[in-house]
From TrEMBL, chain A:
Protein name, per record: Type-4 uracil-DNA glycosylase
Keywords tagged on the record: 4Fe-4S, DNA damage, DNA repair, Hydrolase, Iron, Iron-sulfur, Metal-binding
GO biological process: DNA repair
Superkingdom of this protein's organism: Bacteria
Gene3D superfamilies: Uracil-DNA glycosylase-like domain
InterPro entries according to UniProt: DNA_repair_put (IPR023875), DUF4130 (IPR025404), UDG_Type-4/5 (IPR051536), Ura-DNA_glyco_family4 (IPR005273), Uracil-DNA_glycosylase-like (IPR005122), Uracil-DNA_glycosylase-like_sf (IPR036895)
SUPFAM superfamilies: Uracil-DNA glycosylase-like (SSF52141)
Phylogenetic lineage: Bacteria, Pseudomonadati, Pseudomonadota, Alphaproteobacteria, Sphingomonadales
Record bears the keyword Plastid: no
Family, per entry: Belongs to the uracil-DNA glycosylase (UDG) superfamily. Type 4 (UDGa) family.
A Gene Ontology molecular function term of the record: 4 iron, 4 sulfur cluster binding
Species name: Sphingomonas parva
NCBIfam families linked to this entry: SAM_7_link_chp, UDG_fam4, UDG_fam_dom
One Pfam family it belongs to: DUF4130
């Protein structure tokens, strides 16, 4: 067993000199122990062994690809004690197969690349999360500002990370203190000193309160994404970042803040709901959210008083509605009006609209025959129903038929199972379900009884609206 | 005295950062490399930007992102700063912004400044104020960090030219993906004029690149290019509409980035806005779609094809998987033989994994074990690939493949345990 002593945890030059000699002599990786500084090493290593093996005279040297040098220089900063020996094993392999590094699927290559990646990330996070605090030194010439940071990296990266700060803050005097090594910049040269403790770094900076104000204000409480934050700013770094002291309260207050914003805008709607509704309607006129806009004449938007406590949702405009641009004016609409009258409901007191706002049809000769909208079309059009419902906020909504029910509940439902009692729509509103009036036109058996049942449903709904008023 | 001034700055900062947070962009990447090793000035840019902190909304904090003022003569409904809003108003002087930027920068809090503004008095006046900040930072303080300036529609082209001279990036937001949405929500903004301004910036960038080829000393114009932002969920645009619009913008204006910002409730909202915000996942899916176009060789039409009949991307699976499930005839892909373009289409294989596969298959016939080392999730990739020891027998025809490949829903617990 040979013992190789390296000067520092990130002593790439020392490792390279030793590894080159060992590889030329083809010493197997298992026969080499690596040690940093004077720390107690492998008990079985022969301390008397020469630091670097000598290759037999006349052995030609060998070169490794540039990529390996970069990879090794980075990976050697990793905290894994096995890194020296893993890198040496890879070097030995490269001696015989100089392109072996390209085999990215090889377990050893993968492991070393993963180490290098962890090191690069740690360096990047150090560049990101170091927080300088200003201290004023009294010198012969007067006061002089110096910037000092305390940082705790995971790997042996301080030396590799320091030049960045020298490039960026060249005209400042600064120090970065870490447990293992401290680096200092005096405006011209980088110097090192041994590791330090947190107590040796300044405990605050008045600007930090301003920075925390910024951190709190730039945060949007309506879009909490805690996982995304923690992934990029792991908690191990938090203790040295002043702004993270606010994270807990920002998260705790976020939902309430969002709810207040939504509530406040709800209250404002009362004021200019007409403007808002007209704007939405105008936008809907140019809707291309699903392919149906190509066949219909126009978008048929809902109509009725915007303060209506009752909203009827039908399926889609038919032939006559498509031409008139108004909902429920065709044969089914006329039947609907009659039933409303029989149930004692004034149609002009209700808002009437459709789940799908374009006419879908098949052409048969000169006639346009109604064709049922599919789930995608219902879903595409739900945007408009949602707009109408959030503007009107009716106390009771009535789904006329399966398409309307699907739009309001977000799933396929059976009309007969839900008829006659209130349910919760997906936005929480009270919703009743009954058949579509066109069903009454189509049905063959018991036409009278079906009509009576429809009127009965409507009458019950009318009572409910009165009760809620 | 100084104490009062600081308090005052903090109050303004609270208002003017709050007002700026609806702009999603915080990038500080892709500009020319600079440093201050000559001992003069301060700052550097290193190609790759740095996110100096993350807020609990998951967004990166790379720049000091503020408005010069949140007063505005416009009344855009989606905007917290619109004329009719009751928010508190504040205004920074250019000197205050410069001092704040430098004091944050020296402490390594930020990469630089992202400055925008509500429009006061006139477009030219507002643009002049923005340019004055950038000029002071660059010329008086020799600041070499990153600067992103918002340009104001209709501002004098000479001012926009100056902005591009001082800034690494300039941007102007198209705001809404559809013309009809812009008309409803920003009645005073004009889509044609916004696009005109973007075309001018593109022309200036191209000009300056040509000049640079001839004279090395030619000053650069916005070396990090231009970007824009669309608000998602405030108008009726479908994901398909948005993807196609983004592609159109990339093509015509050579944008570096299109940002998608899920509309979110704002204090003192206008009644014209929807009450409900769209799911944040929708925004995420749009960014993924954007990546498919920029890095994975998908055409905009192909990405749009991954949408459902209503033009929406599925929320529960990513668009690449949605595309693969819809166009199964392209799978399985033989990892040992298929060209790079085909590998990039495999759900679960990122660009890096594809590069590794292409490099390593010169050395070995790839087996599942190898793939497991090269990818994040073998389970996700497996139904779509062929390796030396694996072929998914009829698997891509399974009706329940979608359920099979969906990622398990997990949520990170922050304060658990």
């Amino acid at each position: 067993m040979r013992l190789i002593r390296l000067d520092e945890e990130d002593d790439f030059e020392g490792w390279r000199d030793a590894a080159r000699g060992l590889a030329l002599a083809r010493i197997p990786p298992g026969d080499v122990a690596w040690q940093v500084g004077g720390a107690a090493g492998d008990l079985f290593a022969s301390a008397a062994a020469p630091p670097a093996a000598q290759a037999p005279a006349g052995t030609p040297g060998f070169s490794v690809p540039r990529g390996f040098v970069d990879l090794a220089r980075t990976a050697i900063c990793h905290s894994d004690p096995e890194r020296f020996s893993l890198l040496y094993a890879l070097l030995l392999r490269l001696r015989d197969a100089p392109r072996a590094l390209e085999d990215a699927a090889d377990p050893l290559v993968r492991r070393i690349e993963a180490m290098a990646k962890a090191v690069r990330r740690d360096i990047h996070k150090m560049h990101a999360f170091v927080r300088f605090r200003e201290v004023t030194d009294q010198t012969a010439d007067g006061a002089d500002a110096r910037y000092v940071a305390w940082f705790e990296p995971e790997h042996h990266i301080v030396r590799a990370a320091a030049p960045f700060f020298a490039r960026r803050f060249a005209a400042m005097r600064w120090s970065i203190l870490t447990p293992e090594l401290s680096v200092h910049w005096d405006g011209a040269t980088l110097t090192e000193s041994p590791g330090a403790t947190r107590e040796q770094a300044p405990s605050g900076d008045p600007i930090e309160e301003t920075w925390k104000t910024y951190y709190a204000s730039i945060f949007n409480p309506a879009r909490l994404k805690i996982g995304a934050m923690v992934k990029e700013m792991p908690r191990k770094y938090w203790k040295n970042m002043p702004e993270t002291a606010l994270v807990g309260e920002l998260i705790a207050g976020a939902q309430a803040r969002e709810a207040r914003m939504v509530e406040a805008s709800r209250d404002r709607i009362g004021g200019n709901v007409e403007v808002a509704w007209a704007a939405v309607r105008e936008e809907a006129m140019a809707c291309t959210r699903c392919p149906l806009y190509r066949c219909g004449t126009q978008t048929v938007f809902g109509e009725g008083p915007l303060g209506a406590p009752l909203m009827f949702v039908g399926e889609q405009p038919g032939d006559q509605e498509d031409l008139a641009g108004r909902p429920f004016v065709g044969p089914a609409g006329q039947l609907f009006d009659r039933a409303l009258g029989d149930a004692g409901i004034d149609r002009s007191s209700a808002y009437v609209t459709n789940a799908v706002k374009h006419f879908k049809f098949e052409r048969r000769g000169k006639r346009r025959i109604h064709s049922k909208p599919d789930a995608g079309e219902i879903e595409a059009c739900r945007w408009w129903i949602d707009q109408e419902r959030s503007l009107l906020r009716p106390q009771v909504t009535v789904a006329l038929g399966a398409t309307a029910a699907r739009s309001l509940f977000g799933r396929t439902v059976t009309i007969s199972a839900l008829r006659g009692q209130p349910h919760q729509a997906r936005d929480g509103g009270e919703t009743w379900v009954t058949v579509h009036p066109s069903f009454l036109l189509r049905v063959r058996d018991d036409k009278e009884a079906e009509y009576a049942r429809f009127v009965e449903d409507l009458a019950r709904i009318g009572e409910r609206v009165k009760a809620l008023a | 005295m100084e104490r009062m001034a600081r308090l005052d700055t903090r109050e303004k900062l609270a208002i003017l950062a709050d007002a700026a947070k609806y702009d999603a962009s915080c990038a500080s990447s892709g500009t020319s490399k600079r440093d201050s090793r000559d001992g003069k000035g301060i700052g550097s840019t290193e190609g790759m930007g740095i996110c100096h902190a993350y807020a609990p909304d998951g967004r990166c904090i790379s720049l000091l992102k503020i408005l010069l003022t949140n007063s505005c003569i416009f009344d855009c409904h989606y905007c917290i700063n619109r004329k009719s809003s009751n928010v508190r108003r504040a205004r920074f002087t250019p000197e205050e912004v410069v001092a704040l930027t430098l004091s944050f920068y020296r402490r390594n809090y930020i990469e630089g400044l992202f400055l925008s503004s509500g429009i006061i008095r006139s477009s030219d006046y507002t643009m002049e104020q923005i340019v004055a900040v950038a000029r002071s930072l660059r010329e008086e303080h020799d600041f070499r960090g990153y600067i992103h300036l918002k340009t104001i529609p209709d501002a004098d082209p000479e001012l926009v030219r100056l902005a591009g001279l001082y800034a690494d990036r300039v941007s102007i937001n198209v705001e809404l993906p559809t013309e009809r949405g812009l008309k409803r929500l920003a009645p005073e903004k004009d889509g044609g004029r916004i696009e005109g301004a973007m075309a001018d910036v593109k022309a200036a960038i191209v000009d300056r690149e040509d000049a640079k080829k001839k004279y090395k000393s030619a000053p650069s114009f916005a070396p990090a290019g231009q970007s824009t932002q669309m608000i998602v969920g405030a108008d009726s645009a479908s994901d398909r509409d948005i993807v196609l619009r983004a592609n159109n913008l990339y093509d015509r204006f050579r944008l570096r980035r299109v940002y998608y910002s899920a509309f979110s409730p704002i204090p003192d909202a206008s009644a014209v806005l929807p009450l409900q915000r769209p799911p944040l996942m929708r925004e995420h899916r749009l960014y993924q779609s954007d990546w498919l176009m920029r890095f994975y060789g998908f055409s905009a039409g192909e990405v749009a094809d991954a949408a459902d009949a209503g033009g929406m991307m599925p929320l529960d699976i990513d668009p690449k998987l949605a595309w693969a499930l819809k166009f199964r005839e392209h799978f399985p892909v033989d990892l040992n033989r298929a060209p790079r373009e085909a590998l990039l289409r495999v759900p679960g294989l990122g660009v890096k994994a594809v590069n590794r596969i292409v490099a390593s298959r010169r050395w070995r016939r790839l087996r599942l074990d190898d793939v497991a080392r090269l990818t994040v999730s073998l389970a996700k990739v497996r139904p779509f690939i062929v390796t030396e020891d694996w072929r998914p027998t009829l698997l891509t025809d399974r009706a329940d493949l979608a359920a099979w490949t969906k990622p398990a829903q997990t949520q990170l617990e922050l304060f658990g345990g």
